[in-house]
Write a structure and sequence with these properties.
Elements (H helix, E strand, L loop, with lengths): L7 E3 L4 E2 H11 L21 H11 L6 H4 L10 H4 L7 H6 L1
Antiparallel strand pairs: 1-2
Length: about 100
């Protein structure tokens, strides 16, 4: 069931979808975090922040940043220096890069 304009998005500060959409149309925030200027939405517990990002993307026609588009197909990142035992690291080579 889609959200209605009077549905609360931010429960901490009782900010509804209509207020957030109006703020986005009028102020045209460049990033979703600027929606916090709309009655402090998203500054309480943080539960609504993913929804605020989604609303920002829809209302402001903002493209997703490049770093969020990259797929993490490689699995976990492993670093030989990070995963090595402290005693086995040569601090001069490590410091030299």
């Amino acid at each position: 069931m889609p959200l209605q304009d009077d549905d609360e998005i931010c429960f901490c500060f009782h900010v509804n979808l209509r207020k957030i959409r109006s703020f986005c149309r009028i102020e045209k925030p460049k990033v979703a975090s600027q929606i916090s200027e709309c009655l402090s939405a998203g500054t309480g517990c943080g539960w609504c922040r993913p929804m605020l990002r989604k609303i920002h993307q829809q209302e402001c026609n903002v493209e997703e940043p490049w770093w969020r588009k990259i797929k993490d197909d490689q699995g976990e990142y492993h670093s030989t220096e990070r995963d090595a035992e402290t005693a086995s690291l040569d601090h001069t080579d490590y410091a030299a890069g």
